[in-house]
TrEMBL record:
The keyword Membrane applies. Residues 17-435 form the DUF112 domain. The chain crosses the membrane at residues 16-46, 58-79, 106-128, 135-158, 192-213, 255-279, 316-339, 351-369, 381-401, 407-423, 467-488. This is Tripartite tricarboxylate transporter permease. It comes from Halomonas casei. Keywords: Membrane, Transmembrane, Transmembrane helix. Pfam families: TctA.
Length: 499
């Protein structure tokens, strides 16, 4: 108890609290600008932490991290342009709600779900970190492959109207993820002799092109339409009865995000898509998903923000960063004298508990700062639509090239933007393309490593471990459920036609 009180004293200093406010608000703004995001935000603020003490520096970086994950939902809802890849699934129901004049409700649910998922993951982190870390170690390549296969099935769910078109776009995204060096042999693939393509296509330029640029093209083409106007948005939090009514959705998304975040090498984008797929099968209002249903926003935002807390489990307990963001956070910890690993909870327990307190405070700050942040975007969107679209294009180009400084990313963004515009005009869903791009590298690398482990015997995957077998059983049930639902819907239409 004395250690927890001492940790709270470290986290409640005025320097740490100021760092939380500055980092969280800056993260929300950076996350809301298309093409930027967590990595860019941390890159900007990391040099400022070198003269700070450990808790203050980590408070600033954690604020930027958590704030940027939430901030991407604002533009995803307002203009169908996710500020970060983690918020791509939020567009499925967030933007339709905006088109229906329910933008205040959509923003309120996104904010509360983000807060709920973030706080719940912090609680799990505090009480279950050692146990979850031990369980996460059981996920090898074969188990991760089964988990990613389960996530890939959500392509079927988001392919409204034509499953064939959705699968085609999903394969297109998977192809994009294969460009570059082979993850096992290092041989170049689909580079067409161009050295610049050997490093592959990164996610951010593709996501920015698919969502941001294609949206600009659509709005420019339909500039005389009333629907092309950017809405004036406020934020209205859900009432207590509404929260209780959707509590199961909040808990399910938060637990999925917490679980996915504890697995090294996954990330918030994968968690959001997996959670959305679960909502499509389990939500009592699943028939409305994709048409402006708050359950879709809850599934995406509660899960991707839950990852921010649980991603520290492998980082702190095992010294294994789960993605680029946590790798940067781990590097900052090492610089400031925190050595992640199995001895951390024993050797620096007070510092670890102080970081847990900081995580909770950051989520509280995010909830408080959400209204002024949305208000800032509201004032920006009062500018003429042409200026707004021009600003989106400018930030898109900055965000695309700032990830790794490769001018090729500008070309990739432009080409995918034109391709996405053509696909949208042809009635093809864009969500499967992004899902394929997000999950493709994990699917391929885990499959290849799994085949090496099983000596080329794919059927050994199904009996490799209890976890793998359980996940493959879930996949089989998912497929059977989907086929049965489609058959039942077809029979219902046939009977109504005869009647």
């Amino acid at each position: 108890m004395d250690m927890i009180l001492a940790a709270m004293g470290d986290a409640f200093t005025w320097q740490a609290l100021l760092a939380i406010v500055i980092g969280t608000w800056a993260g929300i703004i950076i996350g809301g600008l298309p093409g930027l995001g967590s990595v860019v935000g941390l890159t900007i603020f990391l040099p400022f932490t070198f003269g700070m003490d450990v808790i203050t520096s980590m408070a600033l970086l954690i604020g930027v991290y958590c704030g940027s994950v939430y901030g991407g939902s604002i533009t995803a809802i307002l203009i169908n342009t996710p500020g970060t890849p983690q918020s791509a699934a939020t567009t499925f129901d967030g933007y339709p709600m905006t088109q229906q004049g329910r933008v205040d409700e959509a923003l309120g649910w996104a904010t509360f779900a983000s807060f709920f998922g973030g706080v719940l993951s912090c609680v799990l982190l505090i009480f279950c970190a050692p146990q979850l870390a031990k369980f996460a170690v059981n996920f090898g390549s074969i188990e991760v492959f089964a988990l990613v296969c389960l996530a890939m099935l959500c392509i079927v769910g988001v392919s409204k109207g034509s499953t064939l078109k959705g699968l085609l776009c999903g394969m297109m995204g998977f192809f994009f993820s294969m460009v570059g060096s082979d993850p096992i042999t290092g041989v170049d693939r689909f580079t067409f002799g161009q050295y610049a393509l050997s490093s592959g296509l990164t996610l951010i330029p593709v996501v920015v092109g698919v969502f941001a640029l294609s949206e600009v093209f659509i709005r420019f083409a339909d500039r005389d339409d009333e629907a092309a106007q950017i809405p004036e948005a406020k934020l209205r939090f859900p009432t207590l009865p509404q929260i209780v009514h959707r509590l199961v959705e909040l808990l399910r998304g938060s637990f999925i995000g917490s679980f996915i975040g504890a697995l090294p090498g996954t990330g918030a984008a994968a968690a959001a898509f997996i959670s959305y797929a679960a909502a499509q099968k389990l939500s009592p209002r699943r028939a409305n998903l994709g048409k402006g249903e708050p359950d879709g926003i809850i599934a995406s935002e509660s899960s991707n923000n839950a990852v921010t807390g649980s991603s520290f489990i492998p980082t702190l307990a095992l010294g294994i960063p789960g993605d680029v963001v946590t790798a940067m956070m781990m590097g900052a910890m090492v610089i400031h004298g925190i050595t992640p690993g199995v001895r951390l909870m024993t050797d620096q327990a007070q510092t670890v508990y102080a970081l847990f307190v900081v995580l909770i405070l950051v989520n509280v700050a995010m909830l408080i700062l959400s209204k002024p942040s949305v208000g800032l975007f509201r004032y920006l969107f009062k500018l003429p639509a042409g200026y707004i679209m021009g600003g989106i294009v400018m930030f898109s180009f900055i965000g695309a090239v700032s990830v790794r400084g490769n001018p090729l990313d500008l070309i990739v963004m432009a080409v995918t933007g034109i391709l996405a515009y053509a696909l949208r005009r042809g009635g093809y869903p864009l969500a499967p393309l992004v899902i394929g791009m997000v999950l493709g590298p994990q699917l391929e690398s885990s499959l290849r490593r799994g085949l090496l482990i099983s000596r080329g015997d794919f059927f050994a995957f199904f009996t490799h471990s209890t976890i793998a077998t359980g996940l493959f059983v879930l996949i089989a049930l998912f497929v059977i459920w989907t086929l049965w639902s489609a058959f039942a819907e077809w029979r219902g239409k046939e009977r109504r036609g005869k009647a």
